[in-house]
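hey can u check if this looks right to u? its 378 residues, i copy pasted from the old doc so theres a chance i mangled smth
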Amino acid sequence: MTLLAVSAVVAITGCMFLYFWISDYLVQASMNAADHARFVVALGDVERNEPLLWQMLQRYYDINDFLPGFSSGNDWLAFYSFIIIVIPMIIIAGLMLSRPLSRQFREIAHAAGKVASGDLNTRVSHHPSQPAEMQLLCVHFNKMVERLGLYQNEVAESGSNLAHELRTPLNAALGRIQGMLDDVFPLCPEQLCLVQAQLNNLNSLVGDLHLLSLAHAGQLPLHVSPFTLVELIEERVAWFLPQLEAVGMAVSVHCARELTVEADKGRLGQLINILVENAIKYAADGRTLRIAARTDFSNLYIDFLDRGQAIEHKDLDNMFARFWRAEQSRARVSGGGGLGLSIAQAICDAHGGSIEAQRRDEGGLVLRITLPIILEAT
């Protein structure tokens, strides 16, 4: 609308300028050769030739041309004519230019209707010739529908998965207790410790589900404070040192000593725990884990790079879905409830950041954390 208004003003102004120029040209064309030559020379030095110029103006120009405003009826007629001609042309041009945009909006509206009716396979197309805002709208619409599809699949599968994950430790604990009651197992501290371990697994799973429900509701509490990032990383790596040595995995940390961040230290430590534990379970064959942190003007990036067996491209987004595992046959052997990376994503989202997985050209995966937090050098 602003462009159309400016175009109309510029067009009418240009037409009026052209009208006055043509009028002046016609007047000068009516002069005889001698007067025209004298007039052109006089225009070169107006102050010195003022009497001659007034004489020429009185002879060839209409006095109304020198009165303030549009004094001539012809001027007003030309002005109104230009308005009548230019404005419809500008409107027609605007309608023609907006047709592709209107068509795209109709396509998005139609796609939104299909999504509302339950068709989550709908996507809208975008082209480089479209405005950047329209391309961004199409991209975000497609991502929204894709995310809805993931949520729908997650809800459809989470019922049976949740029942299975809860039933496994519960049945193990109940079976052990029943065995002790039937004198199959002795009633001793060792047997009670086995029962306690299963109940602890159950309690941990319930706690993870509670954390995810708070995160999805946008109510995950954060206690933000400044801390040194490298100290937190080294502390969490030291916690897993026995497990790392057991699988023969070497960890290297690359982070500036002076890097201080403001975030929830406990949640960020939990996030580091999840990714280190994930590397131990699924990338131990690569023997190395590299943790690298860097910053730019607004974001903190923490990369966890391993050389394990990378998963397929199609599964990269699925990694952060609840209860998803790349190899279901290894799920129970590896342990865990399949919620670790979902929790990692929830922690990143709560900080206003993100986490993504990428395949490495030289083999393995990189899990990249992006956190838009306040950074400072001490």
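Residues 2-116 form one domain.
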